[in-house]
Each structure stands twice: as structure tokens, then as C-alpha cells.
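Why do we bother with holo predictions? Because pocket geometry can differ from the apo form. Keep that in mind while you read this record for FE2/S2 (inorganic) cluster.
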Amino acid sequence: MTTNKNNSVPKKDDNYTHNINRNNERSLDRRGFMKTLAGAAGVFAVASLPWGALAAKELMGLADKEYPHQKITNVNDIAVGDSVEFHFPSEHDSAVLIRLEESKYVAYQNACTHLRCPVYWVKEQKEMVCPCHHGVFDVNTGAPTAGPPRRALPEIVVHVEDGAIFAVRVKRYEA
Amino acid sequence: MKRSYFGVIILCITLSMNIVFTQLLVHQYYHENYINVLIYMTCNIILFPVAIFVYKKEKNKGGANYEKK
Ligand code: FES
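The structure, written out:
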């Protein structure tokens, strides 16, 4: 910008917006919107990478994982119709063991398949209930029977030996 | 003034496909169908360059007297 000898902007050039062209505001809006959409597609692409990586890891590693058998509890410590919580296969996977009959035990990883709230065994209802959004699971199969969950709870194979109950492995979903 | 909605619509479609694939991907992961997870991941990743391409192609369309640079 030119200045006169008083070092101030002459009147006729006193125009701070001479280089701002507002004619294309609308087309910029549309473009900005498209930019957002393309960016969101990028976020989705990046966000699916970890899942793919985990899947590839599973595929290369192990078909059916064997964990060391883990003692859950003693047979004497759990009455028929009661449940105990335990962790299997790792410390971070909470699970629940339910004694349905004298010699019938079932165990599930009890992170709800909806949003991973812990699922509880409700003795009176003979159902497993998720308190978060009232998901209900069938105790014999782990299949969801009501509420938002769509997937069955992963079942844990248990094994009774010398008056103690052991967790053997996590059953794979069939199909 | 002439508007061009083509790019916007295509991008909206890619984005909704992204959402659908992501949903399927997560479900397939928990169903332990890991091959399907990889397929959906590839779909999601391919959609990104597609979106960029559409954006590049469409960004200057529409608008009244747009000054070409
Ligand atoms: S987290 Fe269990 S029903 Fe939503």
C-alpha cells in the first residue's frame, strides 16, 4: 500500500477490503463441506487399520488358542444357582461362572456384546442381565434374548477336577 | 446460478458406505471372521482415495462467476 509523505494511507486507498472477494462464498461453502466429507472418509480409513492389524495377527497366529488352565473356584464354594466372577484368559477379561445344576456349570466372558458393560447372573430370573441397557442373555447358550445386544457372549469351556473348577479355553463362535 | 451437487452426493454416499463397512468390520471382528475383517478394512481404505479423487475433481464446479486460477 502506498503512503504519502505524512506516512499515512491516502484517503482514496483507505480500503482494507479491496482484496476480499465475497462473490464465491457459496462455492467455498460447498467445497468446504466436500472437504469435510473427504476428511471423514480418511478418518474411517485410518480407524479401520487397527482392526485389520488385529485380525491379521489372529489369522497368522493361532487357530484355537490354548491358555493354561486356570482354577476358578472349589466346587464346595459355589452353591447350585450361584455364580462367581473370575478373569479369563487375561486379567482384563472378566468372566462369570454359573452353577446351574449339581454338576452343570456354564461360564461366559461377561463383557456385554453391546457396549461391554459387565453382565450379571440374576438367580431369580434365571437369566443373565446387563444393567446398562437391559440386555438379557440366555444362560444355557449365551445368546442374547432381549435388549440391544446382537451377539452371543463368548462361552468358556470349564472342566471339573478333584473338587475344583478350571477354565480351559474360550469357545469360538461357530460359523 | 448453476450449482453442482454431484460431488456432494457422491461424497455423502462414500461416507455412508464408510459407516456401513465400519459397522460390519467391528461385528465381523467379534464374530472372529478375520478374513472378512480384512476385506472390510480394504473397502474402507479404498473409499478414502475415491473420496479425495471426487473432491479434487468437483471442488471447482458450480458457483456463479468463479475465477479460474
Ligand atoms: S452394554 Fe449391555 S445392553 Fe448396552
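The two ends of chain A are 74 Å apart (CA to CA).
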